[in-house]
Each structure stands twice: as structure tokens, then as C-alpha cells.
Amino acid sequence: MTSTDAPPAPASAAGTSKARIGAPLALLATAALVTVLIAAGLGGAVTAYVVGDPGAVVRWGLPIVRVIHDAAAAVTIGLLSLAAFLMPETTRTHRRVTATRIAAVAAVVWALAGLVHVLLTFADLAGMPLTDPSFATQAQVFLWELDPTRTALIASMCVAVVAIFAFIVTTKTGMAWLTALSVFSLLPLALVGHSASSRDHMGGINAIAVHMIAACVWVGGLVGLAIMRGPLGTHLAVTARRYSSVAAWAFTALLASGVLATYINLAEWGDLVSWYGAIIVVKAVALALLGLAGWVHRRRTLAKLDSDPASRSLFARLLVGEVALMGVAFGAAAALSRTPSPGEAKLEAPASLVYDLTGYPDPGPPPSNAWFASWTIDWLWLPVALVAIGVYWHWALRLRRRGDDWPVLRTVSWTIGWLVFIYFTSGAPGTYGKVLFSWHMIMHMGIAMIAPIFMVLGAPMLLALRALPARPDKTLGPREFLLGLVHSRYLKVVANPAFAAAMFFFSMAIFYFTPWFEFSLTTHTGHTLMILHFLMSGYFFVWTLIGIDPGPQRWSPLALMIVLFVTISFHAFFGVILTGLDTVLAPGFFNVIDLSWPVDPLRDQVIGGQIAWGVGEAPTLTLALILAIQWVRSDDKEARRRDRQADRDHDAELTAYNEYLGKLRQATDRYEGAERRDQP
User: Residue 73 and residue 78: Cα distance in Å, rounded?
Assistant: First the structure.
């Protein structure tokens, strides 16, 4: 592939270019608005008001503004992801910057729609029309106090930052960071949807978060392709093919999260025979048709685009039907957010302090077989683990198909690591670790000290660099991203054994002796960040000791052994401190949780300290043994390397050393002879 581009369009084509940008947006918005208006008109988007009716403007405005908000979010994320990861580099155009500037305009619309949605949401919650004389005063007082409006305001602030910097950024790295921030801006909205208030609080939040991200990446990418069709020129085909791979992942995530959200929000399958169920069916049919269209385009249309990238009919075939169906799906989603489930009363969370604090029902006292029988599926980390295993197997099979070898033991080790992670997040430690300190510490030890050992020995980065194809057009693909990470200053810092050890221990101490611990126990965000931190800090610590992936130069085995034993000594000391405390950590949680069975929080904390003290010994011994084996193997490899070198140069190094000793001996003899002659 060359880095040249299609000839620039003449000035008279400016109107055509604007029409090309406006057409897909108009099509998406029209289909979405028609769908949501039909749903609202038939009663699907109208809720029963307890406080008071805020008026027609709010009733109709909320779903309409939500459609505009979601469409602008999708366009922003789609264009930024195209600019950062999918569009080939050229020397004569600035199409990355063009895509980013259009994304900036979309982000402005996204932020403004978010602010309007905040005001309408407050009016809806307060049962107060916008024209009420006290509306402005009430909004100023309560906007930040109510969870739905506060989280939406935080999301709009993040979007405003994206909009500002999208007008400035010109580098691929900056565009990649903006893509990440724009995706992050969606996450607060998952905390306040229907699914977030269901019985499975955490599962509902995870489902809606994945659903929103997947939808925006999929829809936004296709609309972005339509907008950038002209600037892409002959590179349209390769960009569309890359987008197709992303869209396949997005569709899978969208389908899985949609099924999970439907399962969570329906008390029984008979609830599908309702207006709520009808909207779900419309959305499901739209997604099914989109999946079929994507499969057809991937097999036929993209192949034809490779031979004829300038074909308008082929691209129109790829665009029109899918964008219209995406609009229907967006409209159905907006209507669904305003439609109560027919079995909502059955799905209400249990009235208990345990649920109010954790988002989970009281699990009851641990049975004798709790280690094997107690499971609470974490619908965020289970899919992450399964995807990690599946992608790794796919890469390993790709190497074997092309005749390259990849050790089976590494594949087994990687798989075991993630299975261990699944157990400690969804098994008994994950179930009771949300309410008991002792089980929480078991979960911590498993995620931070046991699972990373197996994961690191799998050498995932080395496998990825061997299996992923390189992109010759200088775009930021997965392999290029990993190479940039390997040579980055960030990795040089976190891969320093001293830094990794300090992060592993001191961050743990800071976590438990600050309000962050209670925050992780009482919020979904805190719980997710806690698990992520445990996994990453443990992984980097283990990787600096026994990792075989490429990265900064490793320390000597002796220095690494010292780092290991010093760190684990501090870790044991931390456990001793916990066993001697006479106050409960996170007292606002453990002292008030009111479990259905008698638990002494202080006694349970002492047990947790003993676990932290004792459980670390087995992983430490394992790490020390692996490090010693690697040390011996390193010495053996060095000895064999020297032997091969000696065979090639006939012991030149030894010969040179013997000559040096001979010269040294001659010099010594001359010096001693001179001394004897000088004696009287």
C-alpha cells in the first residue's frame, strides 16, 4: 500500500462534501427520532409520575434529547477512533485532523445535549415544569445532590474536555487519549439507568456500560466512515476493513450485554408480551438485521471495495441500510430508558442495609462447602477473563498454523491464571469478600499474588508481538501500540523492580488505611477500580521478577531476590499490624452492615490479618523458586554461549587471557629482578 492519496476535490465540490457529511447524520437522527416518537406517542416512553407531571416539554423532550445526546456521542467516538487507529497515514493530507475537528463539533453537541438532559431529568424527578418560577432556584440547590443529575453533570464535564482538546490535538497519541476519555465519559451514565436499580445492581451497571460503549463504537465508526469517505479516497477500503473487525467485536459485546440487560430487567419471559417487551423486540430485530448486514458486507462488499474503492454504489450499499437500522436501535434504546418494566416490582432490590451498602443481597452465613458451592457471577470480569483466554488461544493457534512454535505450558499457565482470577472474583472469595474482611483478604491475595504468577509465565506480550500483523502504513494498530508501550518511558518506570515493589506494598497500605477502602466496599466504581489495581500492581510486581516478555533491561537475579524478600517482609509486617489493631478498618461499613448472622468485625479483621501474613508465604516461595530456576538457566545459557564462541574463534578469549597473564608474569619477573640487582 502506498502513502499517496486521491487527488483533492475541486472547490466547486464543497457543497457536495457538506452534503456527504450531513446525509448520514440526518439519516441516523431521522430513524432514531421517528422510532422514539412512535414509542412516546403510543405510551411506551411515558412514565407514571408520583411527584407530579412535569409537562409535555419534559415528557417528549427527555427521549428526544437523549437520542441527540447518544448520536453525538457515537459520532464523536467513531471519528476519534478512526483518526487514532484506523485511517492510514498520508503525506499530502490532514484527514486525521479533519476527522478530529468534526469530532470536536460533535462533542460540543454531545456536551450541550447532556446539560439539557440534566435539566430535563431534574424537572422529571421533581415533577416540576420548566416554566415553574422556582425551577431555577431548585435546580441550583439540588442538581449536585441527586445521583442522576450529578453523574450526568460529571459526564458532561468530561465531554467538554474532549471537545476543547479535539480542536487542538494533531498527533495520533493525543487522538488516542481523546478516544479513551470520550469512552470514559459514557460510563457515569451507566450508574443511573434502569438496570442500575435492579436486583442485580452490579450486573446491570456492567451490562449497560458495555452496551453503550459497543453501540457508540459501532454506530460512530460507520457514520465516521460516511463522513470521511471523500478525504479517505483510495484508502477507504482498508479503513472499512479495519472498521469491520472492530464492528464485529462491538456487535458481539452489544449482543451479549443486551441479552444480560434484558435478563436482569425482566422478571419472567412472559413480560416480553408488553410495551416494554415490544420495544426490546424491535431493538433485537434491528440488531439481528445489522449483524446479518455486517456479515454480508464483510464477505462481499469489502472485497469489491478493494478492487473499486471509489465506487459510490458499493459504499452506499454499505451505509444506507445499516445507518437507518442503527437509528431505529438508538430510538428504541431511548424509549426503553423511559419505559418501566412490567415486572418492575418483582425486580426491586431487597430492602436491607446490606444491599444499600454493597449493591448485593445478603449472601447468608458461609456454608461448610462455601469454597466450592458459593458463586456470584461478576458479569464484568468473567467476560474479560474469557476473552483474554480466547484471544490468547487464537494467537497461539495462528503461530502453529504458520509453522512457528509456541510452548504449550505457556498457554496452560495463562489459562490457569485467568481461571484463578475468575474464581476469586466470582467464587466464594468474591461472594463473601464484599461483606467480610477475612474473605476480602483472601480475594485480595488471590488476585494480586496467585493469578499474576500464572499470567506472567504465559508471556502474553511476546505472543502478541509474534502473532499480530504489522501495519506498513504507520497507523496505530494493536502491534504498534504494544511496541510503543514496550519502549515507552511509562514502562521503564513501572517495570523498575523498586517502583513495582513499592507500588505493590505501599499502595496496599494506603488503600486500607484511607477512605478508599470503604469507597471500594460501597460503590461499584470503587469495587471495579480496586480489583483492577490489585491485578495490575500484582502483575507488574511479578513481571519485574520473573517476566519473560520484552521490556526494559532486567536487574540481576541476586538483586531481584533481594527485592522479593524485602517486599514480602513488609507484606508480612502489614499482616501483623492488622492482627494487632484494636479498631475496625472502614468502620462506616463493617460496624453498620447488619448481616443476618452474628459476626464480630474486629475478630474477623484479625483473621484477615493472619491471612495476609500467612498466605503470602506460598506465592513467595514459588516466586523465589522460579527466579532461582531462571537464574540457573541464565548461567547455563551464558556458559553455552561462551562455549559456542570458543568453538568459533578457537578459544580466542581464553588465549587472550593467558597472554595477559603471561605478560603480567613477565613484568613481575622483571620488577623482581631489578629489585635484586639494586640490593647492595
Answer: 8
Collapsed DSSP state (helix, strand, coil) of residue 82: helix
Neighbours of 623 (CB within 10 A): 24
Band of pLDDT at residue 343, cut at 50, 70 and 90: low
User: By C-alpha distance, which of 267, 264, 174 is closest to 211?
Assistant: 264
Query: Which backbone phi and psi does 198 adopt, to 5 degrees?
Result: -85, 180
Backbone φ and ψ for 609, nearest 5 degrees, come out as -65, -40
Q: How far apart are the C-alpha atoms of 1 and 234, rounded to whole Å?
A: 10
Nearest to 203 by CA among 426, 467, 388: 426
How far is the first Cα of the chain from the last one, in angstroms, to the nearest whole number? Answer: 88
Grid coordinates of 426: 466470582
Answer yes or no: are the C-beta atoms of 236 and 314 closer than 8 Å: no
State the average pLDDT for the chain: 79
Distances (CA, A) of 290 to 222, 318, 465: 12, 11, 33
198 strand-pairing partners: 348
Looking at the DSSP bridge assignments, the partners of residue 520 are: none
CA 202 to chain CA centroid, nearest Å? 16
Nearest residue to 106 (alpha-carbon basis) of 56, 134, 68, 140? 68
**Residue 485: HSE in the Cβ half-sphere, 13 Å Cα cutoff:** 15
Instruction: Show the 3-state SS of 214-278.
Output: HHHHHHHHHHHHHHCHHHHHHHHHHHHHHHHHHHHHHHHHHHHHHHHHHHHHCCCHHHHCCHHHH
Q: Residue 348: beta bridge partners? A: 198
List all residues 6 or more positions away from 494 whose beta carbon is below 8 Å from its beta carbon: 500, 503, 540
Cβ contacts of 344 within 8 Å, gap of 6 or more: 267
Which residue bears the cell 478512526? 82
Which alpha helices (H) appear in 266-311, and where do they start and end?
A: 275-296, 302-307
Could you tell me the residue ranges of all domains in the chain? 18-344, 353-640, 650-678
Give the highest mean pLDDT range of 339-353, 458-472, 558-572.
458-472
Q: Are 382 and 375 in contact (CB under 8 A)?
A: no
Three-state DSSP state, 198: strand
